[in-house]
Amino acid sequence: MVIDRENLQKLHHYAYSLTANEADAYDLLQSAIETSLNKSCESINSSLAYIRVIMKNRYIDDYRHRQKFPMDNIEDHSPVSLDESSLEDVVIAKHDLALIWKTLDAVDREVLFYWAVEGLSMSEVAEKLDISRGTLLSRMHRLRHRLMVAENDRQRGSV
Amino acid sequence: MKSSDKTPLKQQLQQQYKQVQLNDSQFKELEEIMNKQHGGAVETEEKRPQWRLLAIASMLLVSVLSTYLLTDFSNNNFENMPQLIAEEVVNNHLHLKPLEVKASSLDKLKGYFTKLNFMPVASRLAALDSLQLLGGRYCSLQGITAAQLRMKKGDDLQTLYQTEYLADVFGELPVLEKGQQPLVVYAKGIMVKIWVEKGLLFALTD
């Protein structure tokens, strides 16, 4: 299996969405590629999917003791909003995004990656992450709220 | 900061990711790792047919040799297999690695385990009736991808493995549908029941 640079970059972006740190993302990607070489996949797409699964599982295993990985209880979340476009109209400054980025749960960063970088709809993201669409939209509703609170705080501080 | 600095979240995220780029030395390092798997050479279109022929010939040779060599050894290996399964299950049971998903019913878990070659199922073994499901995680058993389910009985946690039953990997094991009882094997003082049911291998700590 040889993965071209474009796909390596995409995998690196996915790793970054998990770790929120470039160096950790590279380490995660490197170890996942080494592990994946032991398995032959039928296509490049299945190889990429396999490496993503390895990275996610390894992130959960290896990073959890340092950086708590949020576990989704799929029965916990009752939907508070079913508006798929709840994030579309959020505007944010680069500086604010940088500040809030590392405070987000890995799950939220993963969702934002699929939504903003891979261009998936919320329904597609929910399918990709094996969680219900209602749960995902609830998360995004809460995330929107956090972003807006952060933005308001910043504005108050700058007055 | 001026409000004009603000752009839609999606656009801001895309710009952020654009700044996260692998550099040339990182690309080369990753490519070297991948190429090592291909005998240290970069795979080219011209080389690929020969490489494939060589690979097919090698596989045939290995296949013939394996069949010949393993005929005598397989029975001995399988004799030890229940103990190996029990030890692997108990080691993972004792480590209590974090659950990847929490759920109290198998139906909820099925939605998570989509990368498996099988679907986790309920067992008719009476010992499981009193156990409450807590959640699960991906795992492996003797190199075969498995679902590791965590169950609770009172204050005690128990681990149940389910994986595709492959006779050539796991050897002969008792089949519940044939009226056979689970094998009972001990590892590190913990009892493990092993059986085959609905085409799956089950291993349960007690």
In short:
The complex is a heterodimer of chains A (159) and B (206). Chain A has 7 helices and 1 strand, in the order αααβαααα. Chain A has helices spanning 5-19, 22-36, 44-63, 94-101, 106-117, 122-129, 133-158, and one strand at 91-93.
Q: Can you give keywords for this protein?
A:
heterodimer, A: 159 residues, B: 206 residues, Protein Transport Mog1p, Chain A, 8 strands, 39% helix, 26% strand
Coarse structural class of chain A: mainly alpha
H-E order of chain B: EHHHEHEEEHEEE
Q: Name the average pLDDT of chain A.
A: 78
Query: Helix and strand string of chain A, N-terminal first?
Result: HHHEHHHH
- Structural class determined from secondary elements of chain B: alpha+beta
Number of helices of chain B: 5
Poorly predicted ranges of chain A (pLDDT <50, ≥5 residues)?
73-81
Assign a percent range to the helix content of chain B.
Answer: 25-40%
Poorly predicted residue ranges of chain B: 40-47
Overall number of structural domains of chain B: 2
Biggest pleated sheet of chain A: none
Shape descriptor of chain A = globular
Number of strands of chain A: 1
Distance from first to last alpha carbon of chain B: 61 Å
CATH topology of the largest domain in chain B: Protein Transport Mog1p, Chain A
Spatial shape of chain B:
flat
